[in-house]
Amino acid sequence: MKFSLKKYKISLILFIVTLILLYICLSILTWIFNQNETLVTFAKNTLEQNTDYPATNSNLDIKMEIPTRTDGVKNCWQEADGSWGSQYDIYVINNTDYPFVDWRLEMSVPDEARIDSSWNGTYIESPGKITISGSAPFLTAIAPPHNNVKVGYVLYTNKLMTGSNFYLTGRFLRKPLKDIPFMTSLILVILSFLAFIISLVSSIMVERQKIKDEEKIEDLLQLCARFIDVRDEYTKMHSSHVGIYARKIAKEMGLSEDFQKTIYYMGMMHDVGKVLIPNEILCKTEKLTPEEWFEMRKHTTYGAEILKDFKAIPNIKDAALYHHERYDGKGYPQGLKGQEIPLEARIIGVADSYDAMHTNRSYRVHLSDDVILSELEKNKGSQFDPQAAEAMIRLLKANKLHQSE
Ligand SMILES: [Fe+2]
Q1: pTM of this structure
Q2: DSSP 206-229
Q3: Domain boundaries, the chain
Q4: What is the pLDDT of residue 52?
């Protein structure tokens, strides 16, 4: 059995669609993980004393406040030397669906600022800057989705801070299963792959069934061919041979595989009308009288009548009816000419004549290949279709006619 892409066209299309969707899916996945590596940064410069800073609607926000004591007063005080001490609570707010980790917050402070105490994080002081990170083991290591982490310190400065620049970095732990484009493409990949598998399996099953059906048809036609040929010892295997030769000619002419298969069946059945020819005519070894020839020629119309309802192979009756037509119009039963004769019948006509010349008959021994070649050359365009005859000549010259396929 030859593999043919045409038979699996739908499966192939679905396979390509699956690959494209898979590529899209993997691209989204790559994007998601690349996003994890992206630093999220922003700056904010809006600290006012005694004011809370509400979160904005962005993915991340910073909230900084001077908390209020139980007595209702903000927790800041002035020292005897005029400096200010104050508690600052700082919130890292995560407005997304994903945990925010490995974060680090840099904030500007006056140069003389010093931390008196701090909590919930790692603090690094440098002139004009404090860096806070929420690294493990602190609970602040991760800012949960739609939640915040709180850090803070008591800071001494010459004046109370009224603002600070913030610079926040970190990464989101995105979850592909929560990503709608990824999940959509993943579901499409799965559906498309399933469709591909179903299509492939059903195509294979259909193809196997087709092969079984064809085997049954061939067995049946082989049986019929033996019935046709068995009555005349000079034409044993003639029907099968004509089928095989016709198929080879069709292949040599570059006709489709379906055509080659059909013409093989047609070739086997081309002489089926002979079953209605009386034995004394069919098996007569002497020359036939004109009346007997008249009767003998009827095997074409008898064949067409027998095959007219054979639906499995469309037009199979044409081979029986027209295989004795000649290209020049001098054949029978209708005297069709050239292209008026169905192509199948023109090819079978060449195959039929070749087998007649190639085998022994009651009135002569078989002809040599050289004689047959010259007959084909001489009669192409008159008795034979020129292209079919040329194809047969090429097959004979290349010794390909009797090679098994
Ligand atoms: Fe015939």
Answers
A1: 0.60
A2: HHHHHHHHHHHHHHHHHHHHHHHH
A3: 39-175, 230-397
A4: 46
